[in-house]
Amino acid sequence: MGGVPPRPREDPRPLKGVLRSFGYAWEGLAYAWRVQRNFRVEVALGLLALGLGLWLGVDLVPILLVAALVLSLELVNTALEALTDLVSPVYHPLAKRAKDTAAAAVFLASLFALGLGAYLFLPALWARLGLS
């Protein structure tokens, strides 16, 4: 049975190790982009929110923070799903509970992002359209 290959030995040059860590992180992002449709949708929605924020002239910091929160939780959810599939390849109620709970974290963050978007965008949009 094939296993996960071991990580390379720790390099004594600190910068090399940091760069290697960035490479692993990039591999994780690329994997999520390739495999997780929800991740791609959330990236697109985050970029849309950023563009709308620029157009409406609202504070971009909350938009960036909540987008980072949603995307980070989606990455954690993806990692937990992969790990759960590794340790429990057949259906198990606890595996389902773990996956559902991780998905719920993404869902709650997405609801918060939606609420924040309404709070930031609606008044600015009404003003921009002359409806206020």
TrEMBL record:
InterPro entries: DAGK, DAGK_sf, UDPK. It is a multi-pass membrane protein. The active site is at residue 74. One of its GO terms (molecular function) is kinase activity. One of its GO terms (cellular component) is plasma membrane. Its cofactor is Mg(2+). Keywords: ATP-binding, Cell membrane, Kinase, Lipid biosynthesis, Lipid metabolism, Magnesium, Membrane, Metal-binding, Nucleotide-binding, Phospholipid biosynthesis, Phospholipid metabolism, Transferase, Transmembrane, Transmembrane helix. It is found in: Cell membrane. A divalent metal cation binds at residue 81. Gene3D superfamilies: 1.10.287.3610. It comes from the Bacteria. ATP binds at residues 24, 81, 99-100. Substrate binds at residues 55-58, 74. GO terms for biological process: phospholipid biosynthetic process. The chain crosses the membrane at residues 43-71, 102-122. Belongs to the bacterial diacylglycerol kinase family. This is Diacylglycerol kinase. The lineage of its organism: Bacteria, Thermotogati, Deinococcota, Deinococci, Thermales.
